[in-house]
Amino acid sequence: MYSLWTKDPKSVHESWDKYFHSLTSGPMPSLTTLGSVPALSDAQADEELIKNHLSLESMVRAYQTIGHKCANLDPLGILDSNSYRKESLELSKHGFFYADLDKKFHLPRSTYIGDGESQLTLREIRNRLENAYCGSIGVEYMFINNREQTDWIRRRFETRPVLTEEDKETLLERLIRSTRFESFLAKKWSSEKRFGLEGCEVLIPAMKTIIDECCENGVDYFAIGMPHRGRLNVLANVCRKPLEKLLCQFDPDLEAADEGSGDVKYHLGMCHERLNRKTNKNIKLSVVANPSHLEAVNTVVMGKVRSEQHKRGDKDGKTAMCMLLHGDAAFSGQGVVYEAMHLGELPAYTVHGTIHIVVNNQIGFTTDPRFSRSSPYCTDVARVVNCPIFHVNADDPEAVMWVCQFAADWRRDFKKDVVIDLVSYRRYGHNEIDNPMFTQPIMYKKIEKLPTVETKYAEKLIKENIMNQKKYEDTIHEYEEILEEAYKNSKTELATSPKEWLDSPWTEFFAEKGDSAGLYYPSTGITEDKINHILTHVSSIPDKTDHSGSTQKQKVKIHSGVKRILNARQELSEKRLVDWAGAEFLAFGSLLMEGCHGRLSGQDVERGTFSHRHHVLHDQNEDKSFGVPLTSLSPDQAKYTVCNSSLSEFGVLGFEVGYSMNDPNSLVVWEAQFGDFANTAQCMIDQFISSGQNKWVRQNGIVMLLPHGYEGMGPEHSSARLERFLQMCSDDEDVFPTEDNDHLVIEQLHQINWFVCNFTTPANLFHGLRRQILLPFRKPLIIMSPKSLLRSPDARSPFDDFIGDSYLQRAIPEDGEAAQNPDKVQKLIFCSGKIYYELVSQRKSRGLDTDIAICRIEQISPFPFDLVKEEMLKYPNAELCWTQEEHKNMGAWSYVRPRMRTVLRKIEKPHEEISYAGREVSASTAAGSKQRHKQELSSIYKASMKL
User: What is the DSSP secondary structure assignment for residue 501, as one 8-state letter?
Assistant: First the structure.
């Protein structure tokens, strides 16, 4: 074929034409032998040349593709790589024989092992490929579908530099600190759980190398997420938290309150600023506190970094970055890992590259990897995002350092994720008092005989005359003296302040707002001029914007249906009325104009699941062209981000929690497509949102919009599980707040862990969102967001409810005929949510307007004891009833009932009962049958209106 091509290039297929052209560009490849060979005809020589070239290409590709399977990765020698070698890397598999080893071959362009040489013997080629791909590092990258990136990896990986003597000394010093810190803790607190790093001590120099390299690349902010294994060592030797502050946490007499946390020491986080030795620059390191739900912290850290990048105006991640540490079993087993990696390249969620480090113990608690995952590696999930994966033997520190340098450069050049799999072992059990011999006897018999990586590396450097024995021992002694001194100081150190363990200190925020002694309830109203400006602007067709953010002086051609929505919005505002979507626009818009960054995230939030919002207006004729009215309210406004998320709840909610955690001056809102879907984010809600301040002294102003309401749509589209959020509220049902306190409302808000609301008016939504930013502290806000009320003509608020001294109404009392003659009222109904409008309609249709008063509880928690008391006293002859559309074992009933009894005791009516009107108990949140739904509603109305 080659002979034919030389005579007529068109005589072969186009692909072969290109191949032969590439082969002959430059010096013509030739086959050179070291001995005499029989003469070949031209045709035979050409055929032999092509055959050998293709065979060599095949061999090179085999090493690049599956060389990692034959690498020496396991410090324990348990993993068997010989079978892969026999299957794929034997010479005969590629058409070669041992007699060919000393023949010279022209190197193909698919490899860089030549290091400037164009021809090498087959023996040398194989040796260099072995060193590159089958040593202590195994690299997976050939699945990446980007030629520039694969070439970049190939070039760097196949021509590795060697460490300098200075680098090697630094590496040993860091290994000494990592190893001796663990042994010191083991000696002082032998029976304490500490989840030590023994078996993967190389993690500390690995992290420090990444920080050094990234710092040289311009990064000075590092947010770190990690499980508890090795956390104390990371805090001590990577972040350089003062050792006495760390060691005092082992004091058994330290009160929980003194710790400033409801959590154990190996879950705590911190934020620390220190000097980087390599660059002589100050860097900030934030280790994010997290629970035993190991990978839950991943997207929280990503959100925190994204927020930091936004505050800095860092659009490319050049100054702030994310480093995530993982366990092997968790990395392959936890679904949020997949969610986090997919978020990594979405425009509104990317942090421009995360460096992942897997501390691969080769065991999960007591579970063998063969029974905990179906994939060959624990890191296979990373392949879905074209992320290079480096497996490295953790007992080869120099290989680890090179991989870490490589990872830092990869992030710098491509702003993409990279995974480092530190194949190591766990010297002790899951914790230090656990016996691993029960379940892994063979593995732990091997581990018992293994010297530490510090010992092995010190011996290597002593043999190389880089380090001598005395200097080695002096370095150990010097660090042990530092530890002993810190231990003594920890005994005299005052109990650690809660501020010592804050991963997001908010120093400027609290300096501006003051401490809790200066609490005040903010005014949340705005001017009518501002209302008119915002509503007029968002009811007009905006200019086009593209995904780069540039605005064109050309109007978006919007859908006719959307145009009708804009016109209706404008007509409503001309009547001085605001609907639900309008209230959202006013809340976000007014805060943006006041300099507060706004972020709305979740599934389909740009339009809104129920097509009520339309914050992004898409051009009907041009792809990737749209308008976002809230981005152009005023020249000096803050940035507004509205972004449809991936179909994830756990991961995305965690991202927004992290974003809000980092910046108290941003209004961060996450909306579930339906409230029920928040089920899959329950871990994030339980561990970070409801309890974060109690465990880690961490305030957070995240807002959760959870569409809630029984519309006959069945169990998956009805309930946001209001009862779950109320059950986790930290207020005491038996304590009536002190009434002679002028600051009752603000103190209730300050003392509780979060706010749970079920608004019935757009004005309350507006005030609730603005209050999140204007309060002098931050608490999560949970809103049972409506569905049918989004367009209901009854759910409209007049301008007067938004302006001046208007505020959020925690409870809205009866204001109809019943309120004019309270002594004649026979029944006082308390309710929450859209059921109010249905009850008003039923009351009117039954002619009971003067007999029944209805009070709606808008802010369910903290409970408005004072306002409920006023209503009960106002209607002295009325029977009390709580009505809800949820089932009896769900909704707010179990929360409000004991609190209403507390109010009754307060007004000296302890024996008066509160009746219940609602659905009966059920295991499912709603009926799937429309007919059944209507029957249940009829029963609720009947029970509520019964006198």
Answer: G
| pLDDT value at residue 18 | 65
Preceding peptide of 862 cis, ω within 30°: yes
Alpha carbon of residue 705 to chain centroid: 18
Contact call for residues 903 and 735 (beta carbons, < 8 A): no
Nearest residue to 798 via CA among 764, 771, 772? 764
pLDDT at res. 780: 98
DSSP string, 260-280: T-SS-GGG--EEEEEEETTTT
pLDDT recorded at residue 744: 86
Question: What count of Cα atoms within 13 Å lies in the side-chain half-sphere of residue 244?
Answer: 13
Taking 50 as the pLDDT cut, the residues of the chain under it are 26-37, 40, 256-260
List alpha helices for 201-259, DSSP H.
203-216, 231-237, 243-247, 256-259
Q: How far apart are CA 292 and CA 330, in angstroms?
A: 11
Report how far residue 73's alpha carbon sits from residue 792's, in angstroms, rounded to the nearest whole number: 64
Question: Do the beta carbons of residue 947 and residue 880 sit within 8 Å?
Answer: no
Whole-number Cα distances in Å, 339 to 159, 310, 577, 580, 878: 35, 22, 41, 31, 53
CA distances from 425 to 53, 327, 366, 430, 470 (A): 42, 11, 13, 11, 29
Query: What was the pLDDT predicted at 253?
Result: 66
Rounded-to-integer distance, Cα 913 and Cα 650, Å: 41
Give the CATH H-level superfamily of domain 2-135. TPP helical domain (1.10.287.1150)
- Distance (Å) of CA 659 to CA 212, 309, 654, 686: 26, 10, 9, 18
Given a contact cutoff of 8 angstroms between Cβ atoms, the answer to whether 105 and 120 are in contact is yes
Q: Provide Rg for the chain, Cα atoms.
A: 34
Strands 781-785, 703-707: pairing kind: parallel
Phi–psi pair at 348, nearest 5 degrees? -90, 0
The CATH class of 165-498 is alpha beta
Burial of residue 401 (number of CB atoms within 10 Å: 0-12, 13-18, 19+): buried
Rounded to whole angstroms, the Cα distance separating 209 from 514 reads 40
Q: Which fold, 811-945?
A: Rossmann fold (3.40.50)
Kindly provide the b/e burial profile for residues 906-929, where b requires at least 16 CB atoms within 10 angstroms of the residue's own CB.
beeeeeeebeebbbeeeeebbbee
Per DSSP, 345 falls in state T
CATH number of the structural domain 528-708+758-801: 3.40.50.12470
Of the candidates 393, 382, 395, 373, the one whose C-alpha atom is nearest the C-alpha of residue 355 is: 382
Neighbouring C-beta atoms of residue 256, cutoff 10 Å? 9
For every residue of 135-149, DSSP letters joined together read: SSEEEE-TT---HHH
CA nearest neighbour of 487 among 195, 191, 233, 246 = 246
In the structure encoding, which two tokens stand for residue 349, read together? 């969620």
Under a CB-based contact definition with an 8 Å cutoff, are residues 360 and 75 in contact?
A: no
In sequence order, the β-bridge partners of residue 137 are: 392
Q: What is the phi-psi region of residue 614: left when phi exceeds 0, alpha when psi lies from -120 to 50, beta otherwise?
A: left
Of 433, 436, 521, 490, nearest to 742 by C-alpha is 521
Domain ranges of the chain: 2-135, 165-498, 528-708+758-801, 811-945
Tokens 């007014």 found at: 590
CA separation for the pair 139, 624 (Å, rounded): 37
C-beta separation of 716 from 926 below 8 A:
no
Global pTM value: 0.91
DSSP3 helix / strand / coil % (the chain, rounded to 5): 45, 15, 40
Q: Do 528-708+758-801 and 811-945 fold alike per CATH?
A: yes
Query: Residue 393: helix, strand or coil by DSSP?
Result: strand
First-to-last C-alpha distance (Å) of the chain: 99
